[in-house]
Amino acid sequence: MASRSKQKEEARARRLAEEQARAERVRRQQRIRMVGGAVLVAVIVVVVAIVVSTSGGKKGGLQSGTTANATTAAVNQLLGGIPQSANTLGNANAPVTMTYYGDLKCPVCQAFTLQGGFSQLVSQDVRSGKVKVVYNAFCTATCSGPDPNEFPLQQAAALAAGRQNKFWQFAELFYHEQGDETNAYVTESYLDGLARQVTGLNFAAWKSARNDPNLTAEVTSQQNTGRTIGVSGTPTLIFKGPKGQTVANAAVPTYAQLQTAIKQVS
Length: 266
Description:
This protein is an alpha+beta fold and 266 residues long. 57% of the residues lie in helices and 11% in strands. The protein has 2 domains: 1-55; 59-265, Glutaredoxin.
């Protein structure tokens, strides 16, 4: 039987071992928090940089003069010669379809469309007839902002341009001239101003089409379809082709990531 002194030494050794283990757990948790905090800061910095660089820190409002002319020219260069039908961009018989669930006030959609892989996708895969893009409305940033009623207005305005096969010009201009999603800047004046920048758009016909209740019904239908299939954020990019269906898993996918998704379904 162990002596009392030996028992005390063994108990002390156990306490020391437990204290060392606790201290190591604390140090490990601190390291995890430090790394996690650094990652969080990095993510915040990247997101802020994207939003600031694409919106220019604006609170809403239209471009004018040479800036507006340059933006319109860039949009026309990107989209010129590519077939459009309503909210679809590209050859109707393209083997791969990318359905783009978006909100025109969403800054992440703006980052993807202007700085992510979208422009290269359009220039190469859509223009060549390999991919077509279908834009469907899904309210995220607008519905979290000061006036959710802006959402059907903005989307119906784009769909009205789509009746003249100018949906994508209107949407691209919107993203280029997007304001702060916390401000209610999507007014009649703002939408009219965008429409007047769309090259070749019959403004009177567009203005009349915007009042068609079928467009608002279409926006509602697109949202309901999105909810049914599990869309919860924007942009959500769903690729469908001969080999099945997949979803781009990055918030702002690069062209390489879009290509990976296309290959999976081609």
